[in-house]
Each structure stands twice: as structure tokens, then as C-alpha cells.
Structures
1.
Amino acid sequence: MNPSSAGDRSEIDRPKLLQVCQIHVSYVAGVDVVHGVSLDVNLGEVVCLLGRNGAGKTTLIKALCGLLPVNSGQLTFDGTSLLGVRPAEIVAAGIAVVPEGRRVFSNLTVAENLAMGAYSRRNGLGPSWRFDRAYDLFPRLAERRTQLAGTLSGGEQQMLAMARALMAQPRLLLLDEPSMGLAPLLINLIFDTINRLAMNGMTVLLVEQNATAALDIADRAYVLERGTIVKSGLAGSLERDSEIQRSYLGV
Amino acid sequence: MNFSLQLLSGLAVGCIYSLVAVGFSMVYRAMGLVNFAQGDLMMIGAFIGYSIIVNLPGLPFWLVVPLAAAITACLGYAVAQSALWPAMQRGASQTYLVLLTLGIGIILSNGARLVWGANPLVYPIPLTHETLRIWDYPVPAVYPFIALTMVALIAGLNVLFTRTWIGLSLRAAADDAQTASVMGVNHRLASAISFALAAGIGAAAGVLYAPITFVSADMGMIGIKAFAAAVLGSLGSIPGSVIGGFVIGIGETLGGQLVSSEYQDSLAFLLMIGILLIKPTGLMGRKG
Amino acid sequence: MILTRASLAATVLLSFASSAMAKDFPVGFFGPLSGPAAAYGSESLSGAQFALEEINAGYLGADKIKLIPADDTASPGVAAQAVQRMIDVDDVVAVVGGSTSAGTAAAIEVTKEAKVPQLSPLAVDSALTQARNPWFARIAQSSTAWAERTAEWLKNNKGARSAYLLARNDNFGVPLAEAFERKAKEIGLELKGRIAYEPSSREFKPTLASVASANPDYLVLWGYYTEAGLMAKQMAEMQIKLPFYVGSAIGIDQFRDIAGPAAEGTYGLLYYLAGSIETDAGKHFVQKWNERYHRAPTQYEGMGYDAMYVLAGAMKRAAASGGVTKQKIRDEIFSTREFQGATGPITILPNGDAERPLPMAELVGGKVKLDTLLH
């Protein structure tokens, strides 16, 4: 991975696709897990959100796809507020998620999982949607299209979860810990794929604990601790930050 | 001759158990709850079938079945939306939900008593008492209806669940409701539709069972055997429920004759316990 | 002043005279008037009320009976409460009821305590007259009598050599089956088998297959009409042709609905069958009932009618021999001999059981026809 090419993509004057402004999110009323987080994702950028377990990363992702209500603050996608918008409308607006732990539909076949990814675009189409692009991206899935997703390996399930999210033809792809529990070789494959998608213009918000790999492909990064952003900046500069190196890069 | 007659009647009753068991499994998959009102929805379906026959005399029986199923499905939809979903939303425990479905069952059977009276009702159609001769075997005229409806329903469910968006989304929501909702599936709607479908299938079973026996408010008791069938086949598996229904239907009739007919009713549960001892996840259950 | 006193005296005298001339005796009635067993209670009540119209038109002279009905919903607890209330509040001189064995059993405890005569039109459980309540009598035969009469009829009237016995496995079916079996042994009627089936059963084909392979002369069932209907239907489906005794189910419409054409030719013992009693009282009742309702009375209506008359007869005799007290009514009920009732001549035995003809009937052409009147 060439860091300079990542730097090339991060033009400051790109239009803001996702704007998160001072949001508070909680599971239980009164106990905010995310308090006062602000972040932006510009069109075509790969933005990385670093943080340890329990920092509030997944909570933030859930709020972004409408699974958790935002208690206060602003949330806009492409200039439209996402506050109080239901998950179905959010995915239709162009935000797709690769959830933490992959969460493929294990009793559905690979092809059916992919079809479910396109559920928000189902108008006028049958579930036998054309899956060519997904299979081009991950040829392994093509071989297993009739297999139940529950029988796939962890890496294959991660591929499926990504391909499924892409079936929604999103403008913003949210990835929640895609490298979790995978072998190094597969982690490389997943991050290569994210990079390829970014090269083709996909906007990505990547939540990761694996800071090395994530910062490698990201344009910018935020660091989340105990529900607030404690640091942000260009990926390259954070990579050189001594505190980050100590806490997240294991240097 | 006698043996094949017994087998046939075991198959017919097995079909009824299967259909109600499929309802148990569908609701279990979609909502994660054991719906003990399933048998009572079947009973309501049978009563609605009675009212259709009485009010629309001359309507062919093969139309009574889907009509009663559709009306009962609407009732099931209303029950799911008004009672079950709010309770699930508030995070009610399994125990509470099971009690809730038991309560709904009691309300349904008392309601049926109020609407249709306490006396058993018999479908006033020739089908109830007609016997066909197939290869010189006397076959109750309703058996072919049961067989055809069974085949049509299983084929229809198969198409629904694998070839349509709605079926696919129901299965996805049953698998992982949260992820499905991120894909755009309305979980509440999917749950209610699954519940309604299960009610409709149960109603079809009730209408088909009625000519074999009669309709009464305590007809929902059959739900307990159907539940045993669903558990035996592995609760949540639709093929398992179908097989479980047949195992119990045939086991009861043949076992009742071979062992002792005095314990015929306990056989269903003996079969269930026996199979679960050998295979704890049920016939169609996966390991782990 | 004198005028006032005179008018007061006159008033007292008048009221005394009128009360001496005509009294209203409160009598309680209880039975299920709602719920699944409503037919037993409401039909025997309408029979009792029909009798009451005749009784209050001069049978007791100027005296009248005021009937106080209560619905026990076939629940023992409700029955006991209802009877307690009619004794405490309405001060009834006697109670007619109940119509189910369970409700009657509960009420017996109350009437025994309060020393109020109780006369049941329908309760058959043999245990009821073994409860040592000297205040309880009934005009229905005990279940033991039903079973014994049936066994004798099979042997003596039908020439049966063997029977197969099916019984509902509960406290209704099992005692009947046991009484039948005892009598069958005594008179030499062979039992080819006996099966007690679960009350929730609806599939009797395995059972019926066992019956068919034993090849008895008769199949005898002690169960509910729903089971009787299903058995008749399933026998027809299996093409088993066997004379079938179904008990009192034969008089119930739903039995015929469930069994369909298979009900034809079944036998059953009834409390009462309109038209089977050739006495004046028997004919009178059917004729009057027909004039009013344009149909024949049912068995429960007949029994309600007779229960009311047996009580009124006891009250009439009590009035003639001193006074209508609870004790006297009780004594006269127990001294009932060959009372000419609509359902036949009724004699109350010292233990409170009754002797009365029982009609054995057969379904012929969809109608209940008398086979034999059993004594």
C-alpha cells in the first residue's frame, strides 16, 4: 500500500457526504454510550474510526443505520437529516452496513443473502437479481452460491457480508470491524478489497481495532475513547502520533 | 385391508398435525416464541369455516379452505400487531410471552363459545359423511382434500420462501431480525405476517379436520400434539414439523393398535421423548 | 277509636284468614342454565315450570308454589352457594336439583346441614344416594341401575351372548362400566374385552379395530355423545357392522349430527321417551306439551316435569296430614309409591333412589323409537 496515493484522495474541498454533529446515543435512557461525537465523511474518502472495545464504535454505527435513536445532535447524509429516519429508509438513501461479527443469514444460501442485500432496491425485480458484480469481487462466493451461509468459513462469511452490503448499491459503506477474528491472509484480502472499492470511488467509514491495516488504507481517522472523539487527523499523521503508536499500533 | 385403512387415517391425521406444527415452527422462527394459541387459531379457523358453509351454501369446499384461512390470517395479524409485538417490544421474558399466548388461546376458545355456542358443530355438507371407494378401499371423502391441500400448501410455502421477496425477507428476519432491518426489512411487519401465515395454515388444518370429527371450542387441544410434532421434528424447522406430524399421526394409529389403544394419546409424547433422547435437537435439528 | 280498633281487628283477621286459605311456598331450583351443560338445566327447568302452571291452578288447593331458579353453570362451588342462598334468603321449603352429578353432590352437603328436602330430576351418580343424606332423593335411576338394565336387556331381550365394553376413562364412564361388567358376569353375558379410552380422544380407529377383531355380538359404550358420534362414524368408515349401544347419546341431536348416517340402528337408554308411557299421566303430559310447543317433550323436560310433581304430591300429602313442614315434605317424598308421573310410575326407595321404567330406544329412520320399556 502506497501511503501517498491515500493522501492524494483526501482533498479538503470534497463535498461532505456524512456529517455527524455532537450526537448522543444510549441503549438505556439517561446513560449515553456515545456523547457529543462529531465527525465528517467526505465523498470518496476512506475514514477510519479507531477505538478499543467499549469505546462506543458499534453504538455509533447502529445510530448511523437507524437501529438506535439519537438523543441529541445532528446527523445528515447528503444534506438530509437522518434523525428519526427508519433503517429501511436509511439503506434506501444509500448507506449500507457490514455489521460487526458479519451476521450473515445462516439459514439462507449465499445467493439469497446477496439478494437480501438488494432488498431495498427490490422494486420491479425478483430475488434472482444479477449477482455478477458481487461474484467478480469475490469469486469464492460464486462457487458457493447455493450453499447455506452458516456453513461458510469466517473469511467467506466476511466476504459475503461485504458483498451483501454492496448489493444495496450504497453511496456510503459502513464497515464494523471487518478484520475481527480473521487470519492475517484473509485480513489482507479484506483490506485490499476495501481499498479497491475506494479506488473506484466508494465512500467508506471503517471502524477498526486493527489500527495498522486500517490507517494504511484510510485517508483520515478519528480516535474514539469512552464515547468521545479524542483525536482526529490525516491517517498518515496519526500513524506517526506517538500516543497512537503506543495505544493502538503496539509499537 | 385393515392395516392400510389405519395407515391412511394415520396419514390424514398426520397431515393435520403437520400443518399446525408448521405454524408452531414459523412463529418460533420469526418471533422466537412458542405460540400456544396455535391450536386455538386452528379451532377458530374451523368455526369460521362452519360459518362460511352455513352462510354461503353451495360454495365448493375447496374454496372454503382458503377463505377461512384468509380470515383467520387477518385475525392472527391483528393479534400479533396488537398483543404480541407490544409485549416483545417491551422486552417481555419468554415465560411472560408463553403465558400471553396461553391467555390469547383461552380468550379465543371462550370467544368461540360465545359466538358459536357450547355445543359441537358438524359441517352440514355431504363431505362430512361421504365415503369414496378407491381400489375397493373405503376412503372418507375428505381425505383427498387433505392430501391435496397439504401438497399445495407445502409447495406454496416453498415458492413463497425461496422465490419471493416477502418470503425471503421473512426468512432473513427470522434468522437475524436486526441485520434484516438494516437491509430494509420491517421486523414488526415481518413478524406479524409470519404469525398471520401460521394462523392461516392452522385454520386450513382446522377446516380440513372438521369433517373428520366436529368443531368445538376445545378443539385447540390438538395443538399440544402438534407441538410435540414440531419439537420432535426440531422446533423451527418446517420440513421437520411436516415429518414430525406424520410420525405422530401414523405412530398413534398404528402404535395404538399394536401396543394398546388405551395409551394411544400418550403415544405422541412417548414418541417425542423417545426421539429427543436419541437425537436431542429433533429429527431435523443441526448439531450444536 | 272503636272504629280504628275494629278495622285493625278486621285487618288482622283477614290477613290471617287469607294466609290460612292460600300460601305461597318458595321452592328452589338449580342446575346449569348456561355453559356446555346448559341443556340439562334449562330443559329440566322448563319442564318443572310447565308442571308448576298446572300445580298452581289448583293441585294444592289454594296453595301455590313459587319457584326460585338458580344457574349453577355446572360448577359444584356455584351450586353449593346457590342452594345455601335460597335456603338462607328465600327460606325455601324444598329444593329441586341438580341436573349434573357434580353440582348435585355439592348441594347435598348444604341441604343435609340445613335439613331441607332435595329432589334431583337428573343426577345419576350412584354415590349420591350413598352419601347418607336423609334429605336427598331423586327420580332418576342410579348409574348402576342404568348399566344393569342394559346388561339384562342385551341378554334377555336381544339374546346377546357377548359384548365388548368401551368406557370413558373418568368418574363417569368407569363406574358404569364396572357395574355393567358385574351384572354381565352375574347373568352370563360374555365380555370379549374392555377398553377405557382417554376423555380427549378423537381417533378411535385403533380401538375399533380391536373391537372388530374380537367380534362381539354388541358394542357397549359408556361415554359422552361426542365420542359416541365419532365412534359410530369411524366404524362406518372402517365398514365395521356391529350393533352399537351408545347410552343416552341417542336422544341428543349432536350425536346424530356427528355420526351422520352411521347413527342409524344405534341403541340407547333414555331417561324418558315421549310416547313410551301409556298411562293417563303419560299421555296427558305429551298432549299438553304438544299443544303448547308443537313438538314432543325432551327427556330432560319430562324429568323436570315429574320432579316438580313428585314434590308437589309430597306437599299435598303433607298438607292433608298436618302441615307443610320441611320434615313432613321429606317424609312424604320418601313415601312416594307408584306415583303416576309423566315418565311412568315412580317409587322412591328408602335410600332415596327411584324405581321407574327406563325406555330402551333405537334410532330408526333418523327417529328415536322405543325398543323396550325396562322395569
2.
Amino acid sequence: MSDTAALADQLPIDGPGAPPRSNGELVFDAPWEGRVFGIAVALAEAGVFTLADLQAELIAAIARWEALGEPVENYRYYECWLAALERLVVGQTPLSIDQIDERSEQFVARPAGHDHEHDHDHHH
Amino acid sequence: MTAFPHSADRAPAPVRAEALEALLTERGLVNAAAIDGLINRFVNDVGPMNGAQVVAKAWVDPEYRERLLTDGTAAVGELGFSGPQGEHIVVVENDDTTHNVVVCTLCSCYPWPLLGLPPNWYKDPAYRARIVREPRVLLSEMGLDLGDDVDITVRDSSAENRYFVLPKRPDGTEDMSEEELAGLVTREAMVGVARVSAP
């Protein structure tokens, strides 16, 4: 992910090679933010849960973050979004939090320079 | 389930996101193409230019303006704007003495079909708290100085009421076409943290 961020820093701000922006700001600050956004909306469109369910969990996740009392500059909106999404997935699909934890740990343990197949079909 | 994702004993968010997508894909609950399509739509196709069309039409068509203020969701639907987070749109009008500014104090409710996804400042805890507590001060810091004769109303968006600001048409734009007018309207003006200026 840090490679991607470094690459983004080198991209031109304007012109045909520029990354998509909305009023000068990237819509997503990192690719994973776009993924969790897309996953949540896709699951809502598929009827796994509703956008109202997502909003309720998002409100709860943001409230949990705010209850931590951390400095606001540490706030990461899409981490709250991910927390909300995980709760909905665990509540509305057969997946468990243990499975998400386990797969995450497997991915963390991948050797440096691994080339996950997903990396090839993401558009940039 | 009580831990927050950035707790030290959990994998970083990008890895958890990748794990979640992999598990959901294996079970056939999502597919990469559909996710790519949604990202592409909200990055490239849906944005403030949609809301700007609505504003420009309301400025040149008094009957449309009436419909927009009466039933925002139906009126923006006339222009083809609908979809997720496009329900229950409530349009409020700004003029010389009344200023509406929109926030979502609890999360990030926002009329996606009209404005795209919200900018970072809209989702920021500081904006969400301060625009309620000291709107005049914060708006001034954001570059909008409102005189004491202007009443400020802070609109708290939710799933039931997704607010959208119809800014005042600037003086000196009488000869401009609807399309030219749309080019003047900014996202900030449609949230109420700015006014629209003549070119």
C-alpha cells in the first residue's frame, strides 16, 4: 500500500494522467477505501443489508471512535466504515469475525513482494 | 467484536479490507467487477456537476424551483438523478438574509446522486461539532463571512432528511445560459459553506 501512496505522490495533478478528483480532492485517499465503499454498496444493492443498516452501524462505529478520546487528527473515516461493514457482514452472512481475523493474519504473514492476484485486475 | 480496527492486535485496515473482500468473493456474495463498477461510478460519473445542473435549472425556471423546494427527491429525479443516498432530499434556499449550512452530526449523510461522495472536511469530527456550536466563526474560517443581519440555520442531515442547499443566484448573471450558470455552482455552495460568485 505504501508503494501505491508513493506512486500517487508522483502523479500529475492535472491533465489526462491525473488521478480522478472531485473539486481538487481525491475521492478515496487510498485504494482500500474505495474497496470497502464498493463492497458495502454492492452488498446493500444485493439485499444482504440496507443502506439504512449501514448508516446505523456507521453512526455506532463513529461514536465508538469518538468515545476513545483520541485527537481528531487521528480520525480515519473509512476505518469506521470498515468496522461498520465488518459488523454487518458478521451479522448478515455466514462469515464470522474469527474468519476475517484469520484471513487477515494470513495476509499480514505473506512474504514481502508477494503478488496477490487481485493486484492485476484493479484499474488505476 | 469490541476492538476497533486500529487496535494494535489487529491487522491494518487495508489488509482487513482485502481479507473481507476475498472471503465475500469466495462465497459469491460480491464480485470484483461489481465493486470496480461502483467505485468507477462514484469516482468518475457522480459528482457536484449533477447538483449544479439542478441549481441552474431552478434559477432559470421558477416552476421547477417551486417543485424542487416542495419535493426535492421528485424534482431531482426529473433530471435523472436518483440512486443510493438519493432518497428524502430536502432543498433549502439561501438568500441575502437567510443562510442554510448542512452537516451530518452523527456520520456522513449526504445526497450522493447530486454531490457524489462527501469531501473529507464534511466527514471531519471538527466540522461536525463546530458548525453546530459556532457556525458563524467556522464559516468565516472557511472563507465565508456573513454579516450579523444574516440568519444562519444549521441543517443536520440524516437518512430521513438529506439536505441540499439552493444557493442564491449571483447578481450580474442575468444574461447567462443555464449551462453557463451551472458552471458557476460549486459543491461548497450546495452544502452552504460558500456562496456562488459571478464570474
3.
Amino acid sequence: MTRADHRRVLLWRLAILAALLVAWEWLTGIKAISRTPGLYWIDPFFISRPSAILARFAYLASGQVRLTIWQMALSTVQSTLWGFLVGVSTGFAAGLVLGRHERLARVFEPYIVAFNSLPRIALVPLITMIFGFGVLAKIVLAWTIVFFIVFFNTFQGARSVDADLIHSARFLGASDRQVMRTVIVPSALAWTFASLTPSISFALIGVVVGEFLGGESGGGLGYLIIQSLGTLNAADMMVALISLGVIGIVMALAIKQLEMRLLRWRPEYRGRA
Amino acid sequence: MSERRPRIVIRDLAKTFREGGREVAAVQDVSVTIREQEFVAIVGPSGCGKSTILNMIGGLVAPSAGTVEIDGVRVAGRVPGNVGYVFQKDTVFPWRTVARNIAIGLEYRGVARTEQARRVRDAIALAGLEGFEEAFPATLSGGMRQRVALMRTLVVEPEILLMDEPFGALDTHTKLDLHAELLALWEARHQTVVFVTHDLSEAITLADRIVVMTRRPGRVKLVHDVALPRPRDVIKLRETDDYAHEYGRIWHVLGEEFAGRA
């Protein structure tokens, strides 16, 4: 793609954003529309409007509130990263061990499949009962989701290591540990990395759902959303949603960068890192 | 040659595989003795079990009958020490750079970093891979990757080298380059080599002795001493009458095996 192409795409994106914001602000200002049947929701009461959202954002960002938007965002980001890190490391370790031990994998298979098919949201009340209304509960929830994503990928990766690569390492004098470290782990990592971008997104989902139930002590943007529902405050809800969107994008991009750096040996990543 | 000590002794080796509930004999009654510093090529039509023999020497496949001994010790289901193995398939580690691929065997053996760097540098110069030290394998040609695989094996200085059609996937020109390089490296160290190939000219160019296999089940059809002087020039060699003579003799025998197939 040429630079001119690149700029044109960027320009279009900005134009669409501006058009959306203008339409949103303008249409929500016309009373006649919200009185039309079926279009009642085009009303500041339901979807707020950009000017009101900006005003609420400024207010929530100021020191006049007990819990600022920054504190809430930080809480959400921190919990997401913890859930992600713990989920990735445990999922990777479990995937590696079971991926290399055929019998162990067969023993655990039904349990893993059963637990993974359980809708994770159904666990929220149980997790809250066990871990309370704090930060820990939402990290645990994020972990239960991330663990399985990473586990299945790593498991597949560890199982599909090329046997000839292992043989050639043995002929070069590798011990079992060295084979693990220099052949199996790097081969499996390529699969693990592919699961990181979905993992961070799912970690965020887990955390926000956890925050719905977590109350003020858990804090976070999910708490702001539930609170806004209680007070029917669409502007606050929009502030939370937009913040979550920005956080999601930034984290996904960061992971993508990391992936490209670590997988720079792969031809498809060449010259892009 | 005969006064040299035997290094690899193969006795009555056989291998049968299960194929859809049937026992299929891949190798039968193979007995060969490979001596110190000898370069032996195993030639035969595809499917004659020559790679299976190599895998049994290397301990990757257990024999169904018979034994393989290396330096008097029976090879039984594990990779023997002091043996290098170059696969036909690309087995360089794609996540390691050229230099770190070549260093891996030294790393496994706990060789000091500075010593590693020195030996890797020498190997890279020897293989003409200068400038590619930090390149990842995916950016290299097949010939260069196989050079890396060869140097990675040689850098740990194995006394016995098992090679399974290592140049099978390369074009003729690259192949000749690598023949010349392999011969130069071998002249310097005189490893004991077992080289599996289906390419007769490759076998004549490289080997002291050629073991010709029959079609499946593979048996030894002929053991032929290559009467060509060393050091050999891989290009000029092919223009000599001696080469043509050697080729003609073995081709005649091998031709029977190929012909029987049609």
C-alpha cells in the first residue's frame, strides 16, 4: 500500500467518525424523531449525545467525584492484565505438560472439555461467593476464560512439534530438558502467540462482567456501567463504553506488536516488526 | 583399508512394518561392516529401506531382527553419542538465526561462550555463509539451509556422520557445490560416513564404497569399491573414463532393480 493510499484510508475513517458524531448530536436534538414510533430511542435519555458525554467525561475526570474515570479505567486495565498474565502462564504450562504426555492428556480430557463448555458467566456468582466483591473475583473470572484459550492452542502446538526437529536436537547432544527448552517450547510458542490477541479481549470481557457484580470495592468501568443503569444515566454509560473501546484497541495493538517482535523468524512477519 | 578398525557393524539386520494389518518386510538380511574413516554410500530404488537402515544405525528405529553395533556397543533404541545425523528434511530451527543454529550443539554440550563464538565463526566462513549470521532460516534458500544443517552437525565434531539424502531436494548446481564442500570437509577430518542416496552419480562422487540395495524388501545386492583417487574434483571427475566405467558397472546392476519394477 502506498503512502497516498494509506492517507486516503485514514481520511475516510476520520470523515466517517465526524459524520457519525454530527448525526448523533443533531438527530438527538430533534424532538419529532423520538416521538416517531420505533425511533423513541433516538433521544438523549437513551443514547445521550456527544456534547453531554464530553461534559460527563470532564466531570468524571475531575477531582469532584469519589471515584474518577481514571481510577476506574486503571482498575479495569490492571485486573485485565493480571487475568491475562495468570491465564497465559498457567494455560501455557498446562498445555505444554499435557501436550507432551499422551496418557495424562487422555485422563484429563473429559474434565477439560466439560469445564470449558460451561458458560463462564454462569460461574460469576460462585466466584463472587468464594472471592468476595473485590478485585480478586474479576481476575479469577478473566483467568478461567484466558486459561482455556491459551491451553488449547499450546496443547495443539506442543503435540504437533516436528519429530525430526526433536531427533536432530538429540543427535546434537540435547538432554530431555534441553529438547524441551530449545525445540518444544519455541515450537509451541508460535501457537500460543496466536491465542494472545483473543485472550486479551476475553480477559477484558471477563473483568467487565466481574465488575458488573463486584460493586464499588471492585471498582472499574463495569461498575460505572451498572451504576449508570441504576441511575438511568446514558451519558455515564457512554463514557464507560467508549473508554472500554479505547482500552480494548490499545491492548490488542500492544499484543500484536509483541507478537510480531517475538515471531519475527516467521516469514509472514518478516519486515513488519 | 582392511586394517582399519570396524566402527559400525551391521549383522543380519531386518525390519518389518505393519501396514494395514499386514506385515511388510522393508529390510532383510543386511550385513555390512563400515570401517574407521570410511565413506560408504547406500544406493537403491526408492522404498528399498535404505533410510530405514540409516535410522536403525542412528537408533531412531528399532530393528525387528539382527543388530547394529557402533564401536562394539549395541545400538538399542537410543541415539548413540558421537554420531551426527543430517536429515533430508529441513531440520534447522526456524526460530534461531543461522549463527545460533550452528551454535546449538555447542550450547547443549556447555561449551564456553567465547569458544562457541569462535567455532561458529569458523564454520560460517567454511560454509560461505558470511553476512547471513543473523538471518533467520526462512529468508535462506534450500541450499543455504542445508549448509547450515551440515555445519551445525559438523561443528560438534562427530566421528560418525549419518546422512539421509541430505541434498535430495536441491537443484543439480547447488548439489555439486555441496558435494565439493562436503568432500573438502571430509578430507580435513575423515569422519566415518554413511550416506544414503538414490542418486548414483552422487554416490560415486563421494564414496569409497557403495552398497547397492535391491527393491523392497531391501537386501544387499552388491558391495562395490569405488576405485577413484582422492582428493576428487566433483566437476572434472565426471569427465573421466574411470568415472564412466564405475558408473556403467553399478548402473548395470542397479538397472536390473529398476527394470524389474516396470
4.
Amino acid sequence: MLDNQKFSLYNYHTNFDKDILMSYKGPFDKHILAILGNYIEVILGRNPKAGKKIFKIFIELAQNISFYSAENDKLGTLAGIGTVVIGEFEGHYTFVSGNLVRNEDVVPIMEKCEIINSLDREGLRKYKRDMRGTPQGEHGSAHIGLIQVALTAEAPLDIEVTPVDNQVSFFTVSVKIEK
Amino acid sequence: MKNLEIPGSRDVYFIPAVSFDAESGVCSISGESYLEETVKFYMPLYEWLREFISTAKKPIEFNFKLTYFNTSSSRCILDILNILKDYEDNGGVVTVNWHYDEEDTDMEEEVEDYMIESELKINLVPM
């Protein structure tokens, strides 16, 4: 993108208005996670309850990107590539994360998210307990991570899937966290 | 048998402090748990508990003082509770205390969920 002259850093910069607390696109390797996690704790320190929730959500979703993104940092860490943005508004924060997923994974992920969004808090807690009783995968379980995100945010998962090509789609999950 | 002591640290990952006392049977996990290889970290804790249970056969007092853990760690915590529950079912004396910040309602829910899953009584103790 940078080499065809059409990329405007000015547009990119100014499109991120004052509501954006933080944005990052790139590989989600352990050092990046540590730095961003630390930064989130610092900037949200003035609102400890919401800040802790955002930190917990960040760790789960950032680990999902790190382990499951269909796009990897081929030159260096092999960590998954994705994007996170945190916005601050009058009564809430918005946490958005996105990454490429393989098309065959889209339906299972969407089904999982639909189940999560159909449940009330007690139902979600039961769902988490049931999933936690099943054997652990290689990196834990992305499914529990998403359930935990909905529980922590105390809000549904706002999901968007943008088809990219016949291999991959861009998967976005967005949650609101009340102040 | 030896005590199990792991100093906690908070760097790229968050390592909880572990203190398992073979003499008194008082065990604690404190701090924050977010690890590179979660199961690998918790495995020696399971092994220590199993050895204590099979050889010492003394009462266990287990104190959780965790302020944060990710979902991977949450499975390992459940494994510890299940080991303790098995001990209790087989005649062992087990006390589990969960120390927490009273304002942390998410943590209170976590503990309730652990009680339902493990069927073990957990005392909520405000810090």
C-alpha cells in the first residue's frame, strides 16, 4: 500500500479522531501483548473497574489473534497479525478487534457467537462451565475466551464478517464496556 | 517431602506466587496468572498436591489470592479444585479460601462458578 502513492498517512491519522484511545495493527507476539496490556492499564487507570475489564478482554482477544489469525508475521515471530482499537465515549468504552480467518472457520465461529449472544448472564455462565469441563486444546480454547469476553463486557458480541477472497474473510468482534 | 515455592513475577507474562508447605499443609497461589505455557506451569502443582495427598494424608488449607487469571489459567485452577475435591471425597480434610476484593463482583461470580463445577465449598474471604 505504501509504495503506490495512494496511501495517505494524513488521512489515516486524522480518521482516528479524539475518541480513539489506542490503535494497533501488526503481529500479536508476546512482547507486543505485554506492551499494549501495560499501556491499557496505564491509560485506563483512572477508571479501574472498566480498565480491568478492558485489560481482561484485551488479553483474551489478543491471544486469539496471536494463535488463530489466518495471517502471520512471516519474517519474525510467526505470531498472528490483527488489529485492535479502543475508543472512549461519553458513557462507555468500545473495544474492537479483527483479524483474517479462513473461510471454512467462519461458520463455526459465527455459530459460537450466535449461541453466546442468545444467552442471558446465567446461561452464559453455565455455557462457560460446560465448555471448561471439556479437554483443553493446544492453546486453551478460543471458545471460552469469547464467552469470557461477553461475560466481562456484560454486553453482547457485535460481530462482522467481511469476505476478502476465496481463502479468507476479515472477522471483527466489537464490545461495549460501560464506564 | 519438600515445600513448593515459586516466586511471582510480572514481566512479559504474569507468574503467580506459589507457596505449598508440606509441614503445615497450608498452600497458596497469589497474584496474577497469565502464562506462556499454562499447563506446563501448573503440572508441578498438581504433582505436589497428589504426592502430599498420597503420602502425608494431612489436612490441606488452600488459599487463592489471585487478582487476575486468563481463561487458560482458569482451567488449571479448576484442575486443582478437582484434585482437592477428590481428596475430600476420600476422607481428606480440605479447606479452600478465596481471598478477593469485595468490589470485584466478576471474581465473586468466578468463585461461585468454581463451587458449582467442583462441588467443593469455597470460602469467600474479603481482602
